[in-house]
Each structure stands twice: as structure tokens, then as C-alpha cells.
Amino acid sequence: MAQALLGKYLVHGPCVGQIIETEAYHQQGDESCHAYRGMTKRNATMFQRGGYLYVYRIHQVHCLNVVTETAGIGSAVLIRAIRPVAGIALMHQRRPPGTSFKQLANGPGKLCQALGIDRAMDGCDLTGSDPLIWIGEDGSDFSALIQASPRIGIRKATDLLWRFVVPWEYLPYLQ
DNA sequence: TAAAAGATCCGCT
DNA sequence: GCGGATCTTTTAA
Hints:
Helix content: under 10%
Number of strands: 8
Distance between the termini: 24 Å
Strand content: 25-35%
Shape: globular
Largest sheet: 8 strands, antiparallel
Structural class: mainly beta
Order of helices and strands: EEEEEHHEEE
Low-confidence stretches: none
Radius of gyration: 15 Å
């Protein structure tokens, strides 16, 4: 699922971004997954069926995930970077003055800031029932360009190559 | 009730 | 590359 989400469009109101970096997290055998030790108040959304939005806060920023498993299994894909596609003026407004185009949303906290996502949106349905926030696609296939690597900023299960990136340098050649 | 850890970011060097 | 900011959840006493 983490690879399949690359190239998809994350839509929140007028703002749209194409997903270019993801990380997978799974309850089973993945110690760095929030759901590894079972359900808590924070991670409850991870145990819903796939298609829901899981948002949590870390340090001073929010991180946005897509729930991926069947109900009862805690699992999600962290969206780590998007390519801004629409609503770019509004994204600039939400980010610090002088932020470059690339830096608008090239990190988990940054893209939440650019898209205006916070913990209040945890549990939203991304599959189309909510006209404000959803995930769409245009049929683009990034599978040949995906690079796998260890996940960023974690201390456990660092051997898993569950981070998937479409390098920023490739993007101009895709249009 | 308290303390520590954490899927980050930014500025400085 | 490094450290600090700064806040919520979780866990232990």
C-alpha cells in the first residue's frame, strides 16, 4: 500500500499534493509501529478499516497517515512528502514567509502545515464520503522509479526497508 | 502525579 | 551534522 500510494493525489479543499514519499507501519512484527503494543486512545484510528485518516502529533508538528488494513489490525502508511499541485498560494500562506516551492511540503510536519491538517481531522474518511478531504488518482504509474530505504527517525525495526521515495529530481521528467 | 520518549523541524556551524 | 525547541501520550510509581 505504501508503494501504491506514490503518485496518488491528496486533496484537502483547494489544496492538492501528489504523494512522493511514504513509510509503512504494521502492528505485526514492527516494533516502531504505534499499534505494536495494542490500541490506545491516540492510535485507535489505526485499527479502523483501511481508508481512514490517522493524524497524531510529535514534538511540535502533526503527521498524516492513511490507515490500510482490515478492521481490528493496526496499520498505516505515513505520508512523508508531497509535490504541491494546486492551492499553492494557500500553502505558502500557511508556511513561513519565504518558504521555497520544494520546502512547502517535503516532510511529514511540513505537508500537514501546508495542507492545514491537525489532530482534529483524525478519523476522517478518505475514500470519498467526505467532499473536503480525499485521495484521488490520474493513473500515473511510478513503480519503476521507486527507491526503498530504512525509515527515518525511528529507533526500532531499522532493518526494514519500508520507506518508499520517488526522487524529487525525477519529477520534471514525469510530466 | 510525574517523568520520559518521540514516525520532526529549523537555524546555526 | 548538531542540538534545542516544546508538547502530547504513555507508563510507572
